[in-house]
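Data card: per-record layout.
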Amino acid sequence: MKIRILISAIIALLFLSSACKKEDSGPVLEGNFNGSFNFSDRSWAFYFKDVEQDGERLHGSFEFHDGSGYAQFTSSSKLVGDNLFIKFVAGSGSNAITFTFEGTVNSERTRMNGTNLTLKLSGYQAVSCGPWYASKSGSGGATGNEKSAAGTQYNLFLKTLQKTLSE
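The structure for this 167-residue chain is written out next.
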């Protein structure tokens, strides 16, 4: 009887120990990323800031290199395997632009890229452009003199998008 209880206790401990172990799923997507996308014959520089992966869900934010156009990722932003989907809305009202980045990340989770970026300006049909890429960097976001010009790059992009959609 004592042996049976002892064996049952050992089996229970082994089961509990294996159930509590966290499997190593490899690197996660996190940090700051410098990136660029092409639209209307021009390259637009941006940051993905404070990116954090929580399971498949991605948290983080976007801004142009001058600090303008800041927006947080929506709850639909995710990473499934190596397939990436990041969505956010920059601006507000009739100037709100929905950005949807689709692409992949490398196995080290230090680079992401894609051929599809969808832009949707309030009141207009969505337009696709690309390609886009982003690489992990030590820091992200505008600082110092760049911040003093906040709004410039977003406003220029908004005007370019409005012009392109009106043609």
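Known properties of this structure: Residues 73 and 88 are 5 Å apart (CA to CA). The beta strands are 31-39, 42-54, 57-64, 71-72, 78-80, 83-90, 97-105, 111-121, 127-129, 132-137.

See the next section for split statistics.
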